[in-house]
Automatic annotation (TrEMBL):
GO CC terms: plasma membrane
Transmembrane segments: 31-53, 103-131, 143-163, 169-186, 232-258, 278-301
Subcellular location(s) per record: Cell membrane
Topological type in the membrane: Multi-pass membrane protein
CDD domains the record matches: TM_PBP2
Alphabetical keyword list: Cell membrane, Membrane, Transmembrane, Transmembrane helix, Transport
Record keyword Transmembrane helix present: yes
InterPro entries for this protein: BP-dependent_transpt_permease, MetI-like, MetI-like_sf, OppC_N
Domain of life: Bacteria
Residues spanning the signal sequence: none
Listed name of the protein: Dipeptide transport system permease protein DppC
Amino acid sequence: MSSLSTNQPTPSRFSRLWNSNMGYSFRRNPVAIVSLAIFLIIAIASTLAPVLAPFDPYDPAQIDIMNSEYPPMWVDGADPQFFLGTDDQGRDLWSTILYGTRLSLLIGLCAVALQAFLGISIGLVAGYVGGRIDSLLMRLADIQLSFSTLMVAIIFLAVTQAMFGSETFNQYAIYFLIAVIGVAEWPQYARTVRATVLAEKKKEYIDSARVLGFGPIRIMVRHILPNSLSPIFVISTVQVANAIISEASLSFLGLGMPPSQPSLGSLISSGFDYIFSGSWWITAIPGVVLVVLVLVINLLGDWMRDVLNPKLYKG
């Protein structure tokens, strides 16, 4: 008697995600679909800036000051080779926005990665060890939260610029921005992870792990941390938007990226002096890109928060 094989192909990870509650919620949420589509378009276009940009804003040989302040194509007096016009230095605005968006996204993602590393590490140690270490770390978090990110960043970057000089500061500006934005926001992660650790470390599976001889680091990383991933994902989404806004604000104040390495914030800042003289596009177009980018990231964060919170998710 022959038996029929009923082996079914193992569904891929994407297939499992697509058919999960999160995938189902995503398919039924047009705001999330549109937000993700816009974010992917912006992210992919900025990543492919060297391919899509007709000019390299970092190459002085491709910049002619005589081409400065050309309006966009739909305004009288435009130059056909500059689709979105040019800035005050004669750089093609479309190319500069692509490179600037890539730089802003890079700073935002790296700053959030630093925030997450510091906050998760401190939260795990504070919640698992407890006692005086927990009290000390949480008091440090309270002190950090009492100061706004922008104020800490302004003080740090101003002192750094005075110590190293403008030339050195401009050369390493991206690293200074990532460091100060990352260090300023770690308490958000620390408090969330600590709360999860306090709830999980008293459960039976943690006691079983201790009986089996697992060390504290393995228990924290392999057993407790996975239970914190849902809120960490939500926080990270919102924090990327906040980091991009912080970078743009600091660049607008002259404490961020230099004009030779344009980000969205430095582009808005460079055109601010010309907005009332008729060259509104130098500030307005990068400003619209920044607003749209931050908006879609926040909308995705709101959707993810609703889906990952069982008290809010209704299917």
